[in-house]
Design a protein that fits this description.
By secondary structure, this protein is mainly α. The chain has nine helices and five strands; from the N terminus they run H-H-H-E-E-H-H-E-H-H-E-E-H-H. Helix 1 crosses helix 2, helix 2 crosses helix 3 and helix 5 packs across helix 8. The longest helix has 27 residues.
Length: about 210
């Protein structure tokens, strides 16, 4: 499936599951012309017609479309699972594990709340909510900086240090085992594909 985007696959699956271009466009918050354009690009890339177009409201798959649909579903489902799994096992972007593991690497196991917010790109309200939960669980302590009373210092407790050690060991173990099912060559191929995906996604953000 060369020159095929995830958006094309997502739109294709939506058209199938919602039974037509119009409903898919409504559910995805796209213009109908956008949906039609992406389906046309997908068909051009595959060199196959995927839908029998009686009208835009109700379509059905061609024989080729019937073959492509489960593959598209499998790709989207697999990527979704991997994203969720790695987010969960990595502790999320700014959940408990990343915060206490970062604190554990700092001299004295402490940072200012402002530094933590800047590191994780979190708004003060969101960070404060997370830190309150950590403090409630006895993982951190918060105190005013004696040199600047406006600043809060976040410090790991002994319980927090032990949790950080366990979480860091689990994260290292996960990284070592996550791709153990792949051969060396398969890992190299995956790395190359991920590099291509990253470049494309970075260009989309420009």
């Amino acid at each position: 499936m060369n020159d095929i985007s995830l958006k094309q696959l997502e739109i294709f699956v939506a058209v199938v599951e919602y039974g037509g271009f119009t409903r898919a466009a409504e559910e995805l918050f796209f213009n109908q012309s956008t949906v039609s354009a992406h389906i046309s690009l997908l068909e051009q890339a595959l060199g196959k017609e995927l839908f029998v177009r009686s009208n835009r409201r109700h379509v059905r798959l061609t024989a080729d479309g019937e073959q492509v649909y489960p593959i598209a579903k499998r790709i989207l489902s697999g990527l979704g699972f991997c994203g969720h799994y790695m987010h969960f096992h990595g502790g999320g972007v700014s959940g408990k594990a990343p915060i206490i593991c970062l604190l554990a690497k700092q001299p004295g196991g402490e940072m200012s709340q402002q530094e933590l917010g800047m590191h994780f790109d979190l708004k003060p309200g969101s960070l404060s909510e997370i830190l309150s939960k950590l403090e409630l669980n006895g993982l951190i302590e918060r105190s005013r900086n004696p040199k600047d009373r406006r600043q809060l210092t976040i410090r790991l407790t002994e319980t927090g240090r032990e949790n950080a050690r366990i979480d860091q060991a689990a994260r290292i173990r996960f990284r070592e085992q996550a791709f153990s099912a792949l051969t060396h060559d398969e890992r190299e191929d995956l790395a190359e594909m991920l590099d291509k995906i990253r470049v494309t996604w970075e260009e989309l953000d420009d």
